[in-house]
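quick one before i forget lol
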Amino acid sequence: MIRSHLFLSLLLLISLAGYSKNIAVNKILDPCSKTSNWRFITGKEFPGARGGLTRNAAGKIILNYDFTKGGKYVAIIFRNLISKDVNNVKILLESTNDCKINYRMIDATGRCFQGKSQKIKAKTNTELALSACGPWSGAWSGKKSQNPEMPVRLLLLVCKQKELPATGSVELKLLSGSTNSISPHQVTGSDISEMDVCGWKLKGQWLEGTANIYLFLNAKSTRAVQPLKLSITAPLMSRNFIKNYMLLPTIKQNTMSCEIPFKNGGNKRNIYRIKISLSGKNFSSSQIVELKGSKSSGINLGTPIASSNIKHSIFGTVTHFTGQKGSWRQYKKLIDMIAACGFKWIRDSCRIIKGPSGKWQIDPHNLEWIKYAKSKSLNIILLIHLFPRYTISEHLAVAEAAVRDARKYVNVFELGNEPNNYFWRKKFGGSWNGRAENNSASPWVVEHLKYTNAIADHLKKIFPDITLIGLGACPPTNFRYFDLGLTKSLDGIVDHPYSYSLPPEKVPYGWQYEKRDGVKVGDSENTFSGLIKSYQKKIRKAGYHTSIWLTEFGYSTFWFNGKNEKMLYAGFSENAQAVYIVRRFLECMTLPVKAICQYDFIDDFGSHEFQPEANFGLIRSNYNPKPSYYAVQRMTSLLNGWMYDSQISVSISAMPLHRSCIRTELVKNWDNSNINAANQIKVFALSKPDKNNEKILVAWSTQPYSKEFNNRICRLKISGIPNYNESPIGINIITGETFDIPITQDKDKNIQLFLSLSDAPIVIKLFKHTE
């Protein structure tokens, strides 16, 4: 039987995973895009017919026929057998002229069954039902039976008819059927919303194919006056899969069956985000649909997690709620956004005032935001400023009031902030790095240390259980404090390791600056990790047991204007900011760092375009998030509860680079020394106590952020976790795209991964094979 109507209006959208045997599932037998799947014949018993198979611009098979010199039919034979679990076979087609169509089925015994022919109207989407139960117009050969014995081979015929045109063509759009058998595929398609764009209506649904899943779309022109481009994009590890179609107003109805090419039909643990977009002149519209793996429900692929659901984390951000200025006035709104981003730490100062009794106390507004932040499960580092215009005794009373009023809500108290930048040098004299001409400590360093030691000792005596950290100068100055007699009342030392204009793996400190600083810090390659390790070595050598706290770092997104190019900071793109912040956070997971706070959460000074200090935020001053907000939110979710596991050996067996891709000099003259780029790949492993069958790898390229080249390749060898050889999932921390990663396991049970890395850091989820 033949019915002329829209195919999509009849096909039932059914879940493609977890089938019961009583549910019929639509299945694509052939998308009709490869002529090799069909064989053309002319019906030689009736000589004269001509024709053949071609493909049109949309990639669909065209059956051409010509009866001007005789013949009675032409036919095409589907090369694949149709098995017994397939029923309700249908083919969607469209002819250029009115024509007569029939079909045959040749069964397992060789018997041929012929259906009853029907006339097809020109230029109309027509669905032809190819029933294995007839009715039949005839049958011959093979074993006599009422209906075919499965499996069967299918023939589609165009038959000559006197009153119909002798030539024409038939476009084959889709051969499908239904099955009651359990689906071999591991993924389920989400609902597809109808799109109504510029006079086009687009409908879609998912259908099964033999090897993969198909996205079947029907675009109908209602009042369209302009052509549109239809694009389907699916995430792959390297180049994404993209399929484009042109929708022309002259063609009122377009049908497209797009095979989504995931290996083995898809990863049962992954969730693929497929983008369907329509674009025309000065217009675009899109939607994201998903293919969900049958075992993806328990896999965290980056769904945001609030701070209240994070028990431990080193990730934090800096706030300026104390001053009640600009966008910071709406502290509840901002704290809610910080908590939603998954940060665990915030760092801010507080204002101390004299209360009605004449005693020092925390300003009530400050206590409000402190309490509210604590209610959102945020850990607070409260900064107590040290100013040289006040005496030590005056500071003691103020600092004591701050701790007394806030210690119920505050986790850590920090003494002083960047003394090399604020007031100390101006009053007492000396260089920014604390080095005097004879390589002794600058006067301001000595004075600042006196204040720090006295106040720290006083607070620890009164409040012995608090966590107290301090210093906050640049690395060479911090190193000098130890040699000058730093108090052991400090539980941690503070550094602000800004990279300024460098990638996050680099800092403007290192062995080549020993002459400049008078102190040897960092390593020979100016690496951030070398700086932290040198701190650790210095602390041990000096006989201390203090921890390391990084309470500021960040990247500004200001723009150059011809006047600000000589500043210390560079203006990074918002995408680069996101990548660099994530890379710095990730590297700190492998280092002895108690907490690291990004500076700062929201842009200051109204996000002024050309001011570096106005553009450090993860969100703009109008509360609109930058890409870095979502990247950090995804990172905190993916890494929630995961800890660096040094017992898992991860080695890079290959990381080739084209000669044009190798980065060399970052800065030609930074204080009379050059700083070179890193070209390595960072990778490390993480474990989580309650994830017995899952591990995580984190990987990224340390090269400067650039969109110049597509990718770089590396091969990883992982030892110590045998049988974690199920299909891994890669997650782009910046975009959230998920993709599959090739994996093998050698005879020694070492896992081998092949990675294609872009500019973004990725999380790789490894799964243990279980019986």
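fyi The radius of gyration is 35 Å.
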